[in-house]
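pinned: reference chain
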Amino acid sequence: MSGHARLAPSNARWPKCPGSIREEEQYPDIAGAAAIDGTGSHLLLEMCITEAVRPEFYLGRVIGLQHEDSPNGWLVDEARAERVSVCLDYIDRRVAELAKEGYEIKVEAESKSDPGGAFGRDDWKGTVDITISASKDGTVEFIEVIDYKDGRMYVSEKDNSQLTAYLFGKMRPFIASGPELVQPFYASRLKSCRSTIVQPKTNNAIRYVDATALDVIMATRKLADAAHATDKADAPLFAGKHCQWCKASPKRGGHCTASMKKEILPMDIQTIIASDIRTIDADQLTEVMDMKTDMTEVFKRTEAELTRRLNEGIEVPGYAMLPGRSSRVWSQVEELTVKALRNRRLKLGDIFIQKLITPAALMKSDLLTDEQKKSFELEYITSMEGKLTLKKVEKQSIDSMVDSISFL
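pinned: its structure tokens
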């Protein structure tokens, strides 16, 4: 756990709060029990990749003796082996998928990633749990980074600064310029890339985002700006969800007051609900909307767990499994129902109501060949622009960012 870079990619706070680096330096870096236990699972994963064995090979054995984080090592029990197997199974699946596309595959465990070097920094680097590279004729065309999470706290793969930094660092030798591997970056040298979270203790344990090299370059440029902002003596402090694990947070015995002045966390939503929404400033509204994806997932998993407990007869205060809204259905088989309706002089067109198949359903069906679908789409189908809806956009103009990137 020791030896982390000043701007470790695993620290998700500094991209959102540049001043947090300065404030946290006043406190010791002490790993918790859960983090130390997670290190044991990471070690087991690395050993399985390096030695080309399954976790069961180490069942009942102690690994990592004399490790700096746990001198007594870690016991490999069935639970730990099962969790690591989830990641290994995914790696095997990805290797098979890429091999079918004719790629030569390379899998690396615990390899270095140095995104900061591309921007003149030596304090922004880290170690990637798993990297999968796919090449043809000696040219790497695809890179995937996998971050294994051993804990229960859900980590989203979307807009994940850790995954972005890791991925860019692994892409850097193939897209950057000169022996120093700096700008300009050539996005067209990689066909695609993927960043993946494997977190066995959560529902949907494998989550990933596919992206283009350009997507990653643009996201990393924003992170580089945030990295440079941390160098300033008066680097600003910004409160938000990222304050939860900050060592300087007063909720953890720290001294920072930024979170007291302006903090929008899930427990504060009730205050917003009770307020006149027109009085909430734009930044706070944005932070609340940014919670939507994470909170929706929280509510979804909570509802599933409550349902499971109630179905197993476990009492849950305030909730019960009750019948939903009733609906009318035919009590007789279709043949008898149709006969009875025909006896009342209803026509078949009144009994069996038909409607035109939708373009989307037709394109998904097997009723037409691909060529017929293409011809039909050109002659009979028109794309209609949807109505204006609220969508999240980047504050910085995408056009201005693209102009600053060189391509082959």
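why pinned: The chain is about 40% helix and 10% strand. Strands lie at 62-63, 74-75, 104-113, 126-136, 139-148, 192-198, 206-211.
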